[in-house]
Amino acid sequence: MSTVSDTDRVERSILINGSRERVWDALTDAAQFGAWFGADLTGQEFAPGKQVRGKMTMPGCEHITFDALVERVEPRTVLTFRWHPYAVDPAVDYSGEQRTLVTFTLKDAPGNGILLTVVESGFDQVPAHRRAEAFQLHGEGWDFQLKNIARHVGE
Questions:
Q1: Which residue in 47, 58, 83, 85 has its CB near the most CB atoms, within 10 A?
Q2: What is the pTM of this model?
Q3: In 3-state terms, what secondary structure has residue 134?
Q4: How many Cβ atoms from other residues are within 10 Å of residue 30's Cβ?
Q5: Would you say 94 and 86 are in contact if contact means Cβ atoms under 8 Å apart?
Q6: pLDDT, mean of residues 17-25
Q7: CA 151, CA 153: separation in Å to the nearest integer?
Q8: pLDDT surpasses 50 at 3
């Protein structure tokens, strides 16, 4: 039996006015994902077993690399990938650390909307010296990013 602490997972949801197909494409088409997330993912693919990498494009974040390993793609329902949370110091090698799991799920909502939920779990495995900061900043980051995808889908 395992227990999950209050500091192990971040969960956020947003209701998006748009079709399931449009929201799904914004999540799984790498160019679209990069457009709303702020990363150059041109020419890449979200597919199980694939690594998706690219430089961040948001002002002030250009020194950061988006680096995710895609695990699951269940069409128009679930996308999961693993990454190193708050891996922002280019002088640090994060490859020896456990990656967190990011899970996006889509559910129909009343009135032609889609409920998009993101859960990032595994923060308890992040090294203690950076765990609290990574957890806090990713909580804030997912709030920001869900608003970005909602704007992107509404364009």
A1: 85
A2: 0.93
A3: helix
A4: 21
A5: no
A6: 95
A7: 6
A8: no
Give the H or E element holding residue 113.
Answer: strand 113-121
Give the integer Cα–Cα distance in Å for 11 and 104. 10
Q: Report residue 114 as tokens.
A: 């889609």
pLDDT band at 111 (very low <50, low <70, confident <90, very high): confident
Kindly report each contact of residues 73-82 with a partner whose C-beta sits within 8 Å and lies 24 or more positions away, as own/partner: 73/28, 73/46, 73/47, 73/48, 75/24, 76/20, 76/21, 76/24, 76/106, 77/105, 77/106, 78/103, 78/104, 78/105, 78/106, 79/27, 79/28, 79/46, 79/103, 79/104, 80/104, 81/46, 81/52
Is beta strand 78-83 parallel, antiparallel or unpaired with respect to 65-74? antiparallel
Length reported for the chain:
155
Which among 39, 42, 92 is positioned nearest to 67, based on CA atoms?
39
Q: Say whether pLDDT at 25 is over 60.
A: yes
Residue 152 has pLDDT above 70, yes or no: yes
Which DSSP symbol is given to 99?
P
Q: What percent of the chain has pLDDT over 90?
A: 90
